[in-house]
Amino acid sequence: MISVKKKKDRVFIYDTTLRDGAQSEGVSFSTEDKIEILKKLDSFGIDFVEGGWPSSNPKDDEFFAQASKLKLRRTALTAFGSTCRHDVPAENDAGMKALAAAGAEWVCIFGKAWDFHVTEALKIPLNENLRMVGDSVAYLKGNGKKVIFDCEHFFDGHKKNRNYAMDVVRAAVNGGADWIILCDTNGGSLPGEVSAATRDVIRAVDAKVGIHCHNDSDLAVACSLAAVESGARMVQGTINGIGERCGNANLCSIMPDLSIKMGYDIGKMDLTKLSALSGFVGETANMSPHPGLPYVGERAFAHKGGMHISALSRDTRTYEHVSPDSVGNKRKILISDLAGRASISAKLKELGISGNDEENREILGLIKDLEAEGYQFDYAEASFEMLVKRFKGEIVRPFNVIGFRMYIDEIGEKGIVSEASVKVVDRFGNIEHTASDGDGPVNALDGALRKALARFYPVLNSVRLIDYKVRVLDEKAATAATVRVLIRSTDGSDSWTTVGVSKNVIEASFLALVDSMEYAVIKHESTKQGKKKKK
Fold this sequence. Notes:
Elements: E1 12-15, H1 31-44, E2 48-52, H2 58-67, E3 76-82, H3 94-101, E4 106-112, H4 115-122, H5 126-142, E5 146-152, H6 154-160, H7 162-175, E6 179-184, H8 191-204, E7 208-213, H9 220-229, E8 234-237, H10 251-261, H11 274-284, E9 302-303, H12 306-314, E10 332-333, H13 341-351, H14 357-373, H15 381-391, E11 399-410, E12 416-426, E13 431-438, H16 441-453, E14 464-472, E15 483-490, E16 495-502, H17 505-534
Parallel strand pairs: 1-2, 1-8, 2-3, 3-4, 4-5, 5-6, 6-7, 7-8, 9-10
Antiparallel strand pairs: 11-12, 12-13, 14-15, 15-16
Helix pairs in contact: 1-2, 1-11, 5-7, 6-7, 8-9, 12-13, 16-17
């Protein structure tokens, strides 16, 4: 685990999730979403939050109207826009007026820094573009705004025509810009190129410099860090790296890299809340963070190999570059046919289950036999826990399913309709026999099981299925292939995953469903017993 002495250099974090991140395919924030994310970012301690583009759409206008009334403690709300239009003085430009009137002390505007874009995209003279940059910055400064200037396509421009790219930077500086941000807009630059160009700008002008990278070459984080090492002191990016095309630089990686690994001062941010922030933004965007994200992903500290886990039990630094706690994440011990006794022992300890070497050896053998049949316990932790407790005789099944039947009929215009009939008996011998319709056979079976068991265990009324995955294990067997079903359920506060395997997809689903409901009942009863003991 790397530990570095804190440097005095302060690096400011600029979040553009609400504007650049919202350009990601499938993301559409409501005004309420944006307000809630802004509050979270402020609470976390992000220095700047780019809220959107005033006057570009009614949603952003409403956002700034509401956001300007908030008492933000740590964050500087920032409005975004472009330079004034061609042949229009800044003071007469509608966009400039909207930015000047926006309820934000800070304004970030962008202008072209690549001559190719000026002559081919804008179709205007190079000098006119310089006029637009300088006049726009000066106008906003004259209206009391603090200005951040984004040099769009800077690194491409610097490679193709360094002198003109630097002229654009100087135009913004001469206009009074508080920050000059160098943008890798197409995301195609390499870290060495970014580093060299950043140093060039810092040597040439007296201005505070920042970096804005896109991830089209999967190098946005690396390029951002390279810029900081070369003197940039502001980093722009998004939570979870969401954004147009391949996304923006991921602040969830950049912030711990800067603070924990490189020793820079990033302000009063509590990185132990980073994973929670990542999850909140992901859920709000209806785009769950990729489980493999560094630092904040649910796989970031997941360990599967037996030798790894054996070493971890001696010293976590053997296979973890930082402590999971430092970024608000958790260590996960995965159970599979690759596991050794150390894996089983560590997992049982994590679940609060005691065990000895002989039991662990037998459990390991059982796991390997089941995985040979197609079971997978990596993320079906509830099924693993139930398996172990049954093996050790620590639980009595709360119910048994005596039998079930499936009916699939075609009824007129409704098309195919599924119905499940289930007969269950609880641990006291009480029997319930009921049926339920469903959108499909698994949905009908889920409804019938829940309906029958809720009579004995009302807690199941609050349990619902939130994810259902089917994996064909032997494609060559075609429709006779063995399938593995993973089901994720929740009771509103916790969630858990169970697994079932069979050549019959209905049976595989049934096994996973029964495990899920049995886990919910036993978890509820265990919680009740724990509360009684405390009393």
